[in-house]
Amino acid sequence: MLALHGTGVSDGVSIGKAFVLQQDLPEVPQYALTAPHIEAEVERFADAVAQARRQLRYIRDHIPASAPTETASFLDTHLLILDDPMIAQAPVDDIRRHRCNAEWALKTQGERLSAQFERMDDPYLRNKKTDVNQVVERILRNLLLADHNEHEKLAPGEIVVANDLTPADTVILKHKRIRAFVTNMGGPISHTAILARSLGIPAIVSAHSATRYVRHGEDLIVDGKRGVLIVGPDKQTIAAYRRLQQDIGARRKLLAKLRGSPAVTRDGRRIALLANIELPADVKAAAQAGAAGIGLYRTEFLFMNRAAPPGEEEQFRAYVKVAKALAGKPVTIRTVDLGADKQVDGGRGAGAAVSINPALGLRAVRLCLRDTTLFRPQLRAILRASAAGKVRLMIPMLSSQDELFRVLDLIGETKSELRRKRVKFNPRIPIGGMIEVPAAAVSADLFAPYLDFFSIGTNDLIQYTLAIDRVDDAVNYLYDPLHPAVLRLIRLTIQAARAARIPVAMCGEMAGDARYTRLLLGLGLTEFSMHPATLLAVKKIVRASNAGALTKFARKILKRADTGEVHRLVDGLNREDI
């Protein structure tokens, strides 16, 4: 029996037989061409790209009706990448310049692009490296005449173990009704993870070397919550996990009964439980979980994997779709939060320098203020969408009053422009700020008079406060939501909002982790925004808690300096009947 660890991206437990998806490419050859053969090689490359396009279009046209709606958009992304000059033209230039074969030209260009993405700090953009690599691999398979149809051998109910899965793979696997999957590659925000959550099957990504240690047909247990893959489990372990499966099933049935129940504490405090979404299609999951609205609509997905940013009309249609689907519930749209490296979305000029430390560089509101041609169309689209529902606008990564005032001026100018054109919008659209930089938390009282609400983005707040990169394996063990400095900054923000009589929410991962719910209630938080899949578990804790009594315990925890002691107190708090 062997246990492998990765990142659990879709909750649940699955027990079944392994299907190891063999995706290894044959060795890519390198050889020189003579002058008369160069144009024939260029044509061979073009044929392989055209074949890849036909393959993807065929898969897209045969998506099962039960597949998540995001599936088509992921396939469209791969089709767009096929048309990008960095894929479609750069290898041709190399074939002609270096007189090398098409496979080698594409392989070296793919490696260059992969290195560029790897230097990106923004995790959403860094994950797009996977899409580029998958498109490159599809073309390479065509050039090398390698097999695309390993999935045909898959039987229903098996657990797929693969190096990685493409959007096309997931469509095929949906047809095959797989039980779970595990990949060597990927992260919690990769398309693979998003689709796993949409499909509602247990999944683990970043389980390094899983394909090396798992044999075809071997018994497996996938624990999607803890990110543990057990290879060759004994009878006792299988029995234990079968009991856990039954417990999970029973808990889910009990939680499902809470969908229509109010999120009110035992002492009568009403708590707003909202959902975070990335795509308009995610609204369905939010509604099914009984979310009171959308606390964070990440708009970055509209901007990714394209040669130019989306236009005002495209953004407007996406925002209106969400606003109308929520039928009068609040929808908080965050203005685009992209990192310093912009090659994938056309927002960065040719020859622009790569930031040495993008986490502290040109990103989020800084980028929007630098490039108002990116920002103004989004502001117009959000304001126009506000006529269709309870839309709120949220500004990410504020760090100074000057930034806030410049954004407010741009919003004011945009409102005036829409009035002149007699375009409908809500003139009193609430404007909020994300508190995710320590400077903003410390000076939250200076921001509060000019904003209608706060939202605490704990993912970045923790990263910046503790000076660690949360996606760096070497230091991410230091990432700790219960560090005393982090808790003090959260408390400062809540106090500043309360003094200014404006609401404050939390939209980072901490808000959706039931372990922290009671502590946050004790700190005075009344709005939580999270992934829809975690909402009912948080609601259960809320309804079983006495918010007034928790305040005393939160004050006690805030006085502790030792992080280990804080963890013990929080665990004890969760065991108390308070």
From TrEMBL:
Mg(2+) binds at residues 436, 460. Residues 5-127 form the Phosphotransferase system enzyme I N-terminal domain. Its cofactor is Mg(2+). InterPro entries: PEP-util_enz_mobile_dom (IPR008279), PEP-utilizing_PTS_enzyme (IPR050499), PEP_util_C (IPR000121), PEP_util_CS (IPR023151), Phosphohistidine_dom_sf (IPR036637), PTS_EI (IPR024692), PTS_EI-like (IPR006318), PTS_EIN (IPR008731). Phosphoenolpyruvate binds at residues 298, 334, 459-460, 470. The active site is at residues 191, 507. One of its GO terms (cellular component) is cytoplasm. Residues 155-227 form the PEP-utilising enzyme mobile domain. NCBIfam families: PTS_I_fam. This is Phosphoenolpyruvate-protein phosphotransferase.
